[in-house]
From TrEMBL, chain A:
Organism: Aminicella lysinilytica
Keywords from the UniProt entry: Cytoplasm, Flavoprotein, FMN, NAD, Oxidoreductase, Pyrimidine biosynthesis
Entry annotated with the keyword Oxidoreductase: yes
UniProt keyword annotation of Membrane present: no
Protein name, UniProt field: Dihydroorotate dehydrogenase
Residue ranges of domain Dihydroorotate dehydrogenase catalytic in the record: 6-285
Function: Catalyzes the conversion of dihydroorotate to orotate with NAD(+) as electron acceptor.
UniProt subcellular location: Cytoplasm
Gene Ontology CC terms, in alphabetical order: cytoplasm
Lineage, uppermost ranks: Bacteria, Bacillati, Bacillota, Clostridia, Peptostreptococcales
Family: Belongs to the dihydroorotate dehydrogenase family. Type 1 subfamily.
Pathway recorded for this protein: Pyrimidine metabolism; UMP biosynthesis via de novo pathway; orotate from (S)-dihydroorotate (NAD(+) route): step 1/1
Catalytic residues identified in the record: 131
Cofactor note: Binds 1 FMN per subunit.
Gene: pyrD
Pfam family, one: DHO_dh
TrEMBL record, chain B:
Annotated CDD domains: DHOD_e_trans
Binding of [2Fe-2S] cluster, residues: 209, 214, 217, 229
Protein name per UniProt: Dihydroorotate dehydrogenase B (NAD(+)), electron transfer subunit
Alphabetically ordered keywords of this record: 2Fe-2S, Electron transport, FAD, Flavoprotein, Iron, Iron-sulfur, Metal-binding, Pyrimidine biosynthesis, Transport
Organism listed in the record: Aminicella lysinilytica
Gene that this sequence comes from: pyrK
């Protein structure tokens, strides 16, 4: 019998499989497909202090082995997320969740963190400083070590829950950003967010997305994600949630060997809603076939 | 709603770039005309959302237009192929909320779900009037399935090459109605909406998941944002914001 349990910044998870923020809503739609309790945790849709409608349509463009999105952090706002969505999710999923928060100023991050800190089913606060969809602010925090550190410290100051900083890959030196977050007190790092991309409609001779550019996700970005998780894991001493194009149990194992303690699964949920359940079910078999007894043993094993 | 493997029972070209495909398999969850399926096409990352044209517990049919590489690939499918679909998706039309004197209006590839609705209404003992609009004779879809259920739709074409010359709205001026069910391109829906005292309008949008998770197809309505895939594709007249 293989052991899929992992410890993530003090939280004991039954398995490392976590649906990624923005691809799983607040769980409701997926509860129609399977029992959410099989999952290690769930990273909820990114929450901002105020409600956001997001970007104009079209927001989706297909790519080879992936997709672009420019949803633009659509969410009902902090109050509605806590009063309704998190409470509803607690009925469907009986484990701690990852609360993904986003903001356009330090004040907004702090406001979200303060409130998420008080939510009983929030186990980890994941701070998105990387969403490439928002014109002002959102991008800048994650591309500069000093401002990434500033957000980290501000959020850490108002919560006792573990804080994971979610990094953008659209930078020249991901390690410098990760180290700045660690030095500022981050309990973990989530990476990678989507890569900035663009498609053009040949008939219309115009960008497919109304927002012109969007975040590239899906299996095509997996090697980039593995590389960045590997680089960051060698440089920091805090756990990593690895994500970017994961869609098979082999991907899960590879990402963990690169240095991830847990993994998040994003775009794959949208194509096959059963993906995360299938990964949880298939993981023991995949481990056994590779001679892995304890999943925790392979974290960062690749030299 | 679930993921299901359906078997292609038949595929044929209806007209130019429009194909008609029938499937067998477990379709018992389909509950209303206007619902759709999201089809996985080999070699393409995202599924293709296509409206249901006809259904019973063990069959569905769709009619789709080749608009890009994905639908081009679908057109090459063969009888006996196994297809991975999410079925059923969306709310569909609700005839219990309709008026006493309804009219059905379809444009182009919006015709198949309107046929599905007409058949449902015929099954309830009604005989709905239907208007189908197309660009020109090349685009006019066969009306055989309508005729089989005793309906002879009014056809309009922009160039007058078949039926009445003009838009579906021109044909609407000749009719009395208190409720409109419509499916077609957005400019058509908007024009029909402005004439309709009340009604249900089926929208199209680029989407990723098709089941309400990604927020890729959210639109603004008078009652807040709604997902075309999950809260739609059918929206009610009073909630639509153009």
């Amino acid at each position: 019998m293989v052991d899929t349990k992992i410890d993530l910044a003090g939280l004991s998870l039954d398995n490392p499989i976590i649906p990624a923020s923005g691809t799983f809503g607040y769980g409701k739609e997926f509860a129609e497909f399977y029992d959410l309790d099989v999952l290690g945790s769930i990273s909820i849709k990114g929450t901002t202090r105020e409600a956001r409608y997001g970007n104009p349509l079209p927001r989706i463009a297909e790519c080879t082995d992936g997709m672009l999105n420019s949803v633009g952090l659509q969410n009902p706002g902090l109050e509605a997320v806590c009063d309704t969505e998190l409470k509803d999710l607690a009925e469907l999923f009986h484990k701690p969740v990852v609360a993904n928060i986003s903001g356009f100023s330090l004040d907004e991050y702090v406001a979200c963190a303060e409130v998420m800190d008080k939510q009983p089913n929030v186990g980890i606060i994941e701070v998105n400083i990387s969403c490439p969809n928002v014109h002002c602010g959102g991008m800048s925090f994650g591309v500069d070590p000093a401002s990434a550190a500033e957000v980290t410290a501000a959020v850490k100051n108002v919560t006792t829950k573990p804080v994971f900083m979610k990094l953008t890959p659209n930078v020249t030196d991901i390690v410098a950003i990760a180290k700045a977050c660690e030095d500022a007190g981050a309990d973990g790092i989530s990476l990678i967010n989507t890569l900035l991309g663009m498609r053009i409609d040949l008939k219309k001779r115009q960008p497919v997305l109304a927002n012109k550019m969007g975040g590239f996700s899906g299996p095509a970005i997996f090697p980039v994600a593995v590389r960045m998780v590997y680089q960051v894991s060698k440089a920091v001493n805090i756990p990593i949630m690895g994500m970017g194009g994961i869609s098979s149990t082999r991907d899960v194992i590879e990402m963990m060997m690169a240095g991830a303690t847990a993994v998040q699964v994003g775009a794959a949920n949208l194509v096959n809603p059963y993906t995360c359940r299938d990964l949880v079910t298939g993981l023991p078999g995949a481990m056994a076939s590779l001679g892995i007894e304890r999943l925790a043993d392979i974290i960062g094993i690749a030299e | 709603m679930k993921r299901q493997y359906l078997v292609i029972e038949s595929i044929r070209r209806l007209k130019n770039d429009v194909y008609y495909m029938t499937f067998t398999g477990d379709c018992h969850e389909v509950s209303a005309p206007g619902q759709f399926i999201n089809i996985k096409v080999g070699g393409f990352y995202l599924r293709r959302p296509i409206s249901i044209c006809d259904y019973d517990i063990g069959h569905i049919s769709i009619a789709f237009k080749v608009v890009g590489a994905g639908t081009q690939k679908m057109a090459l499918a063969e009888k006996g192929d196994l297809v991975d679909v999410l079925i059923p998706l969306g709310n569909g039309f609700d005839v219990s909320k309709g008026g006493r004197n309804p009219i059905l209006v379809a444009g182009g590839i919006g015709v198949p779900p309107i046929y599905c609705l007409a058949k449902d209404m015929v099954g309830r003992g009604e005989k709905p009037r239907v208007i189908c609009g197309f660009n020109n004779a090349d685009d006019v879809l066969p009306m055989t399935k309508f005729n089989e259920i005793g309906i002879d739709p009014t056809i309009t074409t922009m160039d007058g090459s078949v039926g009445m010359k003009g838009l579906v709205t021109d044909a609407m001026y000749d009719e009395q109605y208190d409720y409109v069910y419509a499916c077609g391109p957005e400019p058509m829906l908007k024009a029909v909406w402005s004439l309709a005292p009340d009604g249900q309008f089926s929208f199209e949008a680029r989407m990723a998941c098709g089941f309400g998770a990604c927020m890729g197809c959210s639109c603004k309505t008078k009652y807040g944002s709604k997902r075309i895939c999950k809260d739609g594709p059918v929206l009610y007249r009073e909630e639509i914001i153009w």
